[in-house]
Write a structure and sequence with these properties.
about 375 residues, alpha+beta, Creatine Amidinohydrolase, Chain A, domain 1, Creatine Amidinohydrolase, 2 domains, six-stranded mixed β-sheet, five-stranded mixed β-sheet, 9 helices, 18 strands
């Protein structure tokens, strides 16, 4: 799947901002390969293959996209954003990249660069200190512009449609395996306009106590909770939502716990205002669950950033003192998981505005009997 191609002016603006950040962090060159940082700055998504593709961004001067010659035809050139440097099968691309980085002392590399690419570069970059590029590119990617927010909202609305079908009982559950329901959700994600399915978790009964349960041949029965967590990529941006339903009359212990979960998710969302540290958002959701006596069963962070990737900065977790800013997009998804019995999670994607956080998922938040 290719990256969305934007107007050249967008990439020129992003390059300018990255270079300003490089100056602030004393970075001479940024090297970006596999992952979403490269398409964010250039519009080109590298194929995850053993042939290296590298966007070389110096603090001053032209950026260069070093790319296997056989893939050069895939590139939509962006005049003024980068120069194209194809390499042939008998060339040494690491040496080519090394020549472009000559003289640099501090080099930032993308979080998802393959280790083999960096190891092959090391002999060509003696004396270089390596840093993560998250300080110069990640901060920009966290702050979504209006076009990015609109794309996230469209993706969110698409999966809300599917969640509504689930809650109205239009997606058969009882008698179906988790894998069959997962496949159904995947088909619907594509039918609703996504180009790619990223995940479709379906976990019934005791399986729901495993937050990342892989749907299998477990048959869904009457009178149990069914947790669904699904999303994909639509026009470059990701969706992600979690809703639970109950196949029959809701058991009292499940109903009581879900009321706590409902309040915790609302508290986390309300806390995500401009200037609030990410860890305080986590604490707001966690306090509700702790106070109700379920604290030991909330075993993961409250949320993750989302955008070009399903999981990216900022992470809503204890220890992250990053303040929430206008344009930050993230999940709010507390959960309660009782081993061997049941589990539950409630997840929305939200974006923070100057007026406060806004949810991009608006399907029913209650536990519904189907």
């Amino acid at each position: 799947m290719s990256a969305p191609t934007l107007d050249t002016s967008v990439y020129l603006d992003r390059m300018s901002k990255v270079r300003a950040a490089m100056g602030e962090h004393d970075i001479d060159t940024v090297l970006l390969s596999v992952g979403q940082d490269m398409p964010y700055l250039s519009g080109y998504l590298a194929m995850p293959l053993e042939r290296v593709t590298m966007l070389v961004v110096p603090r001053e001067g032209a950026a260069t996209l070093v790319i296997p010659g056989l893939e050069a035809a895939r590139v939509v050139e962006q005049p003024g954003v980068f120069d194209l440097m194809p390499w042939a099968e008998t060339d040494d691309p690491s040496a080519m990249i090394g020549n472009l980085v000559t003289g640099a002392k501090r080099v930032a590399v993308g979080d998802q660069m393959w280790a083999r690419f960096l190891v092959e570069l090391l002999p060509h970059l003696p004396g270089v200190t390596f840093e993560r590029s998250v300080d110069v590119v990640g901060a920009m990617r966290m702050r979504k512009d209006q076009a990015e927010i609109d794309a996230l909202a469209a993706a969110g609305a698409a999966v809300d449609t599917i969640a509504g079908e689930l809650q109205r009982g239009e997606i058969p559950l009882v008698g179906k395996t988790e894998a069959e329901v997962s496949a159904h959700l995947g088909r619907r994600i594509v039918e609703e306009g996504h180009q790619k399915v990223n995940f479709a978790i379906v976990a019934a009964g005791e399986n729901a106590s495993s937050p990342h349960h892989h749907p299998g041949d477990r048959v869904i029965r009457e009178n149990e909770i069914v947790l669904t967590d699904f999303g994909g990529t639509m026009n470059g941006y990701c969706s992600d939502t979690t809703r639970c339903v109950f196949t029959g009359e809701i058991a009292p212990d499940v109903a009581d716990a879900y009321e706590v979960l409902f309040e915790a998710q609302a508290a986390g969302l309300a806390a995500a205002t401009v200037g609030t540290p990410c860890q305080e958002v986590d604490r707001a959701a966690r306090k509700v669950i702790d106070d109700a006596g379920y604290g030991e069963y909330f075993i993961h962070r409250t949320g993750h950033g989302i955008g070009l990737e399903a999981h990216e900065d900022p992470y809503i977790v204890e220890g992250n003192e990053q303040p929430i800013e206008v344009g930050h997009a993230y999940s709010i998804e507390p959960g309660i998981y009782v081993p061997g019995k049941w589990g539950m999670r409630l997840e929305d994607i939200a974006v923070t505005t100057a007026d406060g956080p806004v949810s991009l998922n608006n399907s029913d938040h209650h536990l519904i009997s189907v």
